[in-house]
Specification:
- Helix 3 (37-47) crosses helix 7 (104-117), helix 4 (59-72) crosses helix 5 (76-85) and helix 4 (59-72) crosses helix 7 (104-117).
- The chain has helices at residues 7-19, 23-30, 37-47, 59-72, 76-85, 87-92, 104-117, 120-133, 158-165, 170-173, 178-182, 269-277, 296-309, 311-322, 332-356, and strands spanning 142-150, 189-194, 211-224, 230-237, 259-262, 281-284.
- The protein is an alpha/beta fold.
- The chain has two domains: 8-118, no CATH class; 136-151 and 188-198 and 208-356, 2-Layer Sandwich (Nucleotidyltransferase, domain 5).
- Strands 1, 2, 3, 4, 5 and 6 form a six-stranded mixed β-sheet that branches.
- The chain is 46% helix and 12% strand.
């Protein structure tokens, strides 16, 4: 049949993509996804046998698709479509043009199984082990910070808000409306993000800073200074105080240097005592004294620390801007899965970048 495409035409197209530097091919060559298979299989066994008639999809294939979703900030439905549509995505998932692709329900059930088995932290740790084994040891100290991750906004009356703050579940608040209860997130919280003060006006007076209300969760992370990988992470609601999370597993004791950088939100007597107790050196910004100007020495010290601490902001810019990290689900368990997978996807991208960057002669 004239004009019909054959097998070698597809191979030639893939070769062209490789010649142009397919980023997913580099990612697949850098990260050995087989190291995750034992954890994924254990999670699926805990979820119970599949009730479907067809043979189950490979768990590593489905995990690769979740990584693709996190890399591009897509929904599960859009991810399944893109794997069917794009040759580069198909190749990354080890699929051919005629192979079946997991649909949105299959991916949803797979992610739910990972959440139920509580293996996302294990997957995150396994990736960090592989990164360390590749020669990227956590070193140079660590930088700790948090960023707000938006979630679908909730519209509740005052009584419903009080019930949520009291810790009641959605089923308890809306017992006669099960469909409504399923769409209500009782774990996410509102908070106010303080923006920078605008420039002074013609009269020389500086207007007050702009306050932006945000509903959702927080991604608390700790990165190593030398290579910029996310080594520790924790997910909370948006109203959780940043400083209190420092003592909840954000410090990486494997880092070869003792220095810890963070902004003023982490400055407290408890945190200073905690860091001293685990032999860490505090490089946390000092707060401005109440009612008095900050001393010149303290301001200069903060400025020096900022040159290092600011590198964590590049991580959040990648996560939220380029990777489009948002929470589309209901509940903190699913939000934690979304954010943890995004942190893993960032580390994979970072690994590829460090492996492929051109070093000076």
């Amino acid at each position: 049949m004239a004009g019909q495409k054959g097998f070698w035409d597809i191979e030639n197209r893939l070769a062209e993509l490789s010649a142009e530097g397919d980023p997913l091919e580099k990612l697949s060559a850098t990260v050995d996804f087989e190291v995750f298979r034992p954890i994924l299989l254990r999670a699926l066994r805990q979820a119970g046998p599949s009730r479907l008639g067809r043979p189950p999809f490979c768990p590593v294939l489905k995990f690769r698709m979740l990584v693709l979703q996190s890399l591009h900030g897509l929904s599960l439905e859009r991810t399944a479509y893109m794997v069917r549509d794009r040759l580069s995505w198909m190749r990354f998932c080890r699929l051919g043009p005629g192979d079946r692709v997991p649909d949105v329900n299959t991916l949803w059930d797979f992610r739910e199984a990972l959440i139920k088995a509580k293996v996302l932290d294990k997957l995150f740790s396994r990736l960090n082990e592989a990164i360390t084994k590749a020669g990227y040891l956590p070193m140079g100290g660590q930088i700790v910070d948090a960023s707000l991750i938006a979630a679908p906004k909730q519209r509740n009356n005052d009584d419903e808000k009080d019930a949520i703050k009291a810790g009641k579940s959605a089923d308890e608040i809306w017992p006669d409306e099960p469909n409504k209860a399923r769409q209500k997130d009782t774990h996410a919280r509102w908070t106010v993000k303080q923006g920078k003060a605008p420039a002074p006006g013609p009269d020389g007076k500086t207007p007050p800073a702009i306050s932006i209300p945000v509903f959702g969760y927080k991604d608390h992370i700790g990165i190593d200074r030398r290579f910029g990988f996310i080594r520790t992470s924790k997910v909370t609601d948006a109203a959780a105080h940043d400083g209190a999370r420092l003592r909840e597993g954000l410090i990486d004791l494997q880092n070869t240097a003792s220095d810890v950088w963070a902004d003023t939100a982490y400055r407290s007597v408890k945190n200073e005592d905690y860091l001293e107790g685990i032999s860490r050196t505090s490089r946390i910004h000092r707060k401005k004294p109440a009612g008095r100007p900050m001393s010149r020495a303290a301001a200069q010290a903060n400025a020096k620390k900022s040159k290092i601490r600011c590198h964590v902001e590049h991580v959040f810019a990648e996560l939220k801007s380029r990777m489009g990290l948002v929470v589309r689900t209901i509940g903190i368990a699913r939000a934690e899965a979304t954010i943890t997978l995004a942190n893993m996807a960032f580390n994979m991208k970072r690994w590829v970048f460090l492996d492929t960057r051109t070093l000076p002669a």
